[in-house]
Amino acid sequence: MSFLLNKTELPPPEQALPGRTQAMLINPVHAVSGQPVQPPFPAHLRQAQFGMGCFWGAERKFWQQPGVFSTAVGYAGGYTANPTYQEICTGMTGHNEVVLVIFDPTQTSYTALLRVFWESHNPTQGMRQGNDIGTQYRSSIDVFDNEQSALANESLNHYQAKLTQAGMGKITTEIRQTATFYYAEDEHQQYLAKNPQGYCGLGGVGIPC
Questions:
Q1: Which one from 54, 89, 200, 209 is the annotated catalytic residue?
Q2: In the chain, at which end, N or C, are there fewer CB atoms within 10 A of the end residue's CB?
Q3: 54 carries an active-site annotation
Q4: C-alpha closest to that of 61 among 173, 178, 208, 202
């Protein structure tokens, strides 16, 4: 079965790793902002969710944005319940690495967060991001409602036009209805705040959205 040897192909659901019922235990407080990283969140806040390669640099990009209340990293879009990082890296869970962003809509907008998303990575690379290769690094936007879905699709079409004009290829970003978000291990939460010299492969293509 070739998919077992090729991390750029999603496994069939029936072949995915089984996972577990126990959720990941993490520090409930954001290492940078001091705000909670798990619900319940204040009622006026909204959520967004993005996959743009390795989640270490992606999370830092979002916690630095004005109006962002809190962030967390985790796994979404796959089949395995409560996966571990080691399982994700096998390519046999179906998930990709994502950032959960909790933001105040009176201080920033979903459109502003989409701009950060598009400009901070290369959305045309399929099952990779730079030197990071595998299904876990694919680009994604997980939408929480119809408004986010409309704005995400509109922004994709807008950015595709700009990339096409610059001679770049087709965007491979998945726009998905938000499913279960599984928190990653505590060591991955706010990783670059805890490890300032840690790896960050995040980089855009230099074309503004």
A1: 54
A2: N
A3: yes
A4: 202
